[in-house]
Design brief:
The protein is of the alpha+beta class and about 180 residues long. Helix 1 runs antiparallel to helix 2.
Amino acid sequence: LWSLLGPAAAIEPPPPMIGPDALGFGRINVRFKDLMNLLNAVTASMPAEQAEQIDAYLVNFGPVLSKGFEALGPGMWTYETVRQPVTPESRVTSTLVTCSNPKAVVPMITQFGGTLGLEPRDFDGNTIFSAEFMPISVGVANGWMATGDSKLVEHAMRSMGQKDLPSVAESPVYRQAASV
């Protein structure tokens, strides 16, 4: 599992979708393209009966997964904010993953999102997959995949590709920390 982390990256400003209201954020690089190799290795180490069931699943769904994973990463940013007024549900989180080929990722979300209750809907000319019973969504556009709290995903989708947005990167605290 640790082999999926990396490669190391220089400090860079967070994506502009992470606004100045972010309480915290972090970046990690993940080799999503190697996930299928990990799945295959784990499957091979299982008892034969379990491995056969998973192999049958991977034969059917492996190609869609492989194409989707190859298009993701390595950059992955997670951030959180607090909605006003403050309630127990105010703390919300979202994750942004770099995406080189949205056309490869959307079929993966379409195929597997249904099992999570995620249904596609139009949002500003892009597709967001949302769950009616949970406030989570997944959206892919303009070189990013956004996941997490539905309102944060919608904000990220609106912000993708826009210039001159207020960003946490403009914060004096961020600038001081990044210069260390």
